[in-house]
Amino acid sequence: MADDSANDDQLPLIYKLILKIPKLSLGDASEKIQGIFWAVILPILVICEVLTNLMLLTYAHFPFNVLSVILFNSVVGLLAIRILVERALNSEKAILNQGHFEWKVEETFNEYLRCLRRDEDEEEPSTASTSK
Question: Are 34 and 26 in contact (CB under 8 A)?
Fold first, then answer.
């Protein structure tokens, strides 16, 4: 957690403001509930929002309909931007913060060469017996 606050200090001001927007947290819920939310409930809510926007634009009077549609869409847009920024920052941290991971390229390459040589040695007797 101390690393997160140190990294948050280096973020641009717009990111800090976006991350202050509250979001729906499903981290404590099980994976099945999260899957149901993202695959079923959220698309239904988006469809309901579109239908509500169409209804407000059609049946409400002029200043109210435009202001309400702008308000609804901006709230949904801000929540989507909040989630996208958080995901982008988490993926950036995962890519750049690889201090706990050791790259053993030479050791892995040598192991790969040993496996290739072993496979070649295993293939030679089988090809020699079939050619005779």
Answer: yes
CA angle (34 as vertex; 46, 4 as ends), nearest 5: 100
d(CA 24, CA 61): 32
Q: Which two tokens stand for residue 62?
A: 């002029």
The residues, any chain, with a CB within 8 Å of residue 59's CB and separated by 6 or more, are 65
pLDDT, tens digit, 9 for 90 and up, residues 64-116: 999 999 998 998 888 888 888 888 888 888 777 766 667 788 999 999 999 99
Residue of 99, 82, 65, 83 lying closest to 14 (CA atoms): 82
- Per the document, the length of the chain is 132
Spatial separation of the C-alpha atoms in residues 120 and 131, rounded to whole Å: 16
